Amino acid sequence: MNLSPPVILTIAGSDSGGGAGIQADIKAISATGGYACSVITALTAQNTCGVEAVSAVEPDFVRAQLDAVLYDMPVRAVKIGMLANQAIIREVAAVLARSPHLPVILDPVMVATSGDPLLDEQAMTALIDDLIPRATVLTPNLPEAACLTGQPVPTSIEQMHELVPALRHLGCPYVMLKGGHLHQTPESVDMWISRDTCQTLRARRVETTNTHGTGCSLSAAIASFYAQGMTPIEAGRAAKQYLTEALAHSHQLTIGRGAGPVHHFYAYPDNLCLLPAEHAVAELP
User: 20 to 30 A from 64, CA-CA: which of 9, 117, 195, 281?
Assistant: First the structure.
């Protein structure tokens, strides 16, 4: 059998713990039917408990990775995550300018779970000026949307609606505003914003501590479904459904001591050879 799945390029940082970043993107793309290739922008020393150190990749080497992949691989869509600094953002923007019709799903990784900023002011300016207008779909969570618009972090669905005009002003045709931080709501509510419409995407809220890499996985799944021929809104809905199920099945995984990953391959249990946790690891030191 000769398979030719759509190729999706993920541009992001590496998570040594495997739950987020490039590793999560590759899993999500693979689980949803795509073929993942990658460009690494930063190396992180992290696990389920937190990030210990970050080392940005030299911008010239980021470009070398991009050139190598795009020369050879028939990339159908691009997912962008952590970009680390202004120089890397400008390199990525310059290379993508050569392929103006290539769909780009941009997850603006700007704020850590702790609330600490991950981009300095110059990098944020480059992201807003050089990359967001080039993107097809922008997928900010609530703290990231607040940073991008200069407004307070929404604490209700009504306040999410108040961000819509400012998010449209950024120049990206589609924005998926993720409401997962509204823990008081019984549902997980996102907003799909286009230039002239705003639709609400709802799913059951899954109570779990295994939430590491949710934003990465969602945007990667959008890119994968988009590359397979779905419209942007169809890809957004399908990716939200995929992530909801990956969260719902995450209790089947016992990984690390902190916030564990979602179960990217929940639909393929026969191929994972999953052992009960007590047999998989004898004892953690």
Answer: 117
* Per-residue buried b or exposed e for 120-157, using 16+ beta carbons within 10 Å of the residue's own CB: eeebbebbbebbbebbbbbbbbbbbbbbbbeeebbeee
Of 211, 244, 256, 258, the catalytic one is: 211
Burial of 243-254, coded b for 16+ CB within 10 Å and e otherwise, reads bbbbbbbbeebe
213 a catalytic residue = yes
pLDDT in tens, 84-99: 999 999 999 999 999 9
Query: In the beta sheet, which residues pair with residue 42?
Result: 56
Each domain of the chain, given as residue ranges in start order, spans: 7-263
- List the structure tokens of 4: 């030719």
Cα(205)–Cα(247) distance, integer angstroms: 9
Q: 19, 79, 214, 240: which one is catalytic?
A: 214
Please state the length of the chain. Answer: 285
* 33 part of the active site: no
Asked if 240 is an active-site residue, the reply is: no
Residue 139 among the catalytic residues: no
Superfamily of 7-263 according to CATH:
Ribokinase (3.40.1190.20)
| Whether residue 81 lies in the annotated active site | no
Write out the two tokens for 273: 């050879």
Q: Of the listed 213, 236, 240, 260, which one is catalytic?
A: 213
| pTM of the model as a whole | 0.93
- pLDDT digit string, tens, across residues 30-64: 999 999 999 999 999 999 998 889 999 999 999 99
Averaged confidence pLDDT in the chain: 91
178 is catalytic: yes
pLDDT at 278: 46
